[in-house]
Amino acid sequence: MMNGRFTLARSSAFRFVLIMGVVNLFADMTYEGARSVSGPFLAYLGASGLVVGIVAGFGEFIGYGLRYISGAAADRSGKYWTVAFVGYIVNLLAVPALALAHTWPAAAGLIVGERFGRGIRKPATAAMLSHAGSELGQGWVFGFNEALDQAGATIGPLIVALIIGLNLGFNRAFAVLLIPAILALIVLAIARREYPSPSDLEVKSTLQITGYNNAFWIYALAGALLAAGFADFALISFHFSKAHIIANHAIPILYAVAMLAGAVCAPFFGNLYDRFGIGIVIAVFGIAALFAPLCFLGSFWPAVIGVLVWGLGMAAENALLPSIIAKLVPPDKRATAIGAFDMVYGIAWFAGSVLMGALYDHSIVALVVFSLVLQIAALPLLMLASRRALV
């Protein structure tokens, strides 16, 4: 009988992760399709490198900074689905609205709005997924979800590339992305109906911690360094377009390939983390740091390799960092903890993006050095935090 319950619990947990993964597949098709050309679109509308850096960084700052508030609200109210729905609606519908933008300030406002919505829904969604992770493994759950995320992030940019390649323009490309946005909201409603209380999936005991210990804040500092040194694709694509390294219609294709690489590797990274621990995290982020010299100093082929490395780094951050946090705090505080971590992460992303945008306008070499130093500095902090937390 116990074996039957165990099998049923795993099956139910997997089904929930799969349904939410489909939601995020359509969601990523929508906003990653737009993000793949946000840099060239802003450049087309007359924005400078500094403006691109500020828009990208401020969007992440708002999105990540809001997560502490939305995460705490979800934990205190218990209305995880309500918070998630509000966030997804804002996150997704801001994208097709870009079809109506004809000036860079208008486009910038919608780009920031998209990040705003994602910031509202992310902690609640991650907390709900973490309940399934207690049965299936936190690394595997977040890795599998990230794989479906990245699959959507592969398809969306390809759709955008096709539309732009047919000379139909940025605005039509954004308008078409309304279709996956609506599909994401429909599947989200199905998930809510089938799993009204995802906390019921928490069938195993977890490490009980009453507050955030030193290890958590060391992880947060390490995450801040990674964020500050990790360039947004808007700036990378802006460089490719301005330096004529890659044609505008090919940039979203390259972005899609990077997302596909992340989709393939994310569950692999998560499974390795579940089995071997923090050493996998150190190795992956050490390799990901190489994106900067490859993207900003290289010609065509180094740039292609650099974007692939960048995609692996993004997948690792989304799959591995939440997995670590889920092991540090009890279930009823995970949304708050993830939100607090993301707030620190977002502030650092904003500061780093603004500085890298300014550095780009004056010295690309300085930008690369800045990126490398910060990401490498994060690695010993990750190791130190793991030793204190014993995760």
Keywords:
391 residues; mainly alpha; disordered N terminus
Order of helices and strands: HHHHHHHHHHHHHHHH
How many helical stretches?
Answer: 16
CATH class: Mainly Alpha
Number of domains: 1
CATH superfamily: MFS general substrate transporter like domains
**Helix/strand/pairing category:** mainly alpha
Q: How big a fraction of the residues is strand?
A: under 5%
Rg estimate, integer Å: 20 Å
Task: Give the overall average pLDDT.
Answer: 86
Number of strands: 0
| CATH-derived architecture | Up-down Bundle
Largest sheet: none
What is the subunit organization of this protein? Answer: single chain
What helical percentage do the residues reach?
A: over 70%
- Assign an overall shape: globular
| CATH fold-level label | Growth Hormone, Chain: A
Low-confidence blocks of residues:
1-5
Tell me the span between the first and last alpha carbons.
Answer: 32 Å
Describe this structure in words.
This protein has a single domain (2-196, 204-389), classed as MFS general substrate transporter like domains (Growth Hormone, Chain: A, Up-down Bundle), CATH 1.20.1250.20. Helix content is 83%, strand content 0%. It has helices at residues 2-35, 38-44, 49-77, 80-93, 104-136, 138-165, 169-176, 178-194, 214-229, 233-242, 251-276, 278-288, 291-297, 300-328, 334-362, 364-389. The two termini are 32 Å apart.
Concise synopsis of the structure shown:
The protein is mainly alpha-helical.
Give the secondary structure arrangement, pairings included:
Layout (H helix, E strand, L loop, with lengths): L1 H34 L2 H7 L4 H29 L2 H14 L10 H33 L1 H28 L3 H8 L1 H17 L19 H16 L3 H10 L8 H26 L1 H11 L2 H7 L2 H29 L5 H29 L1 H26 L2
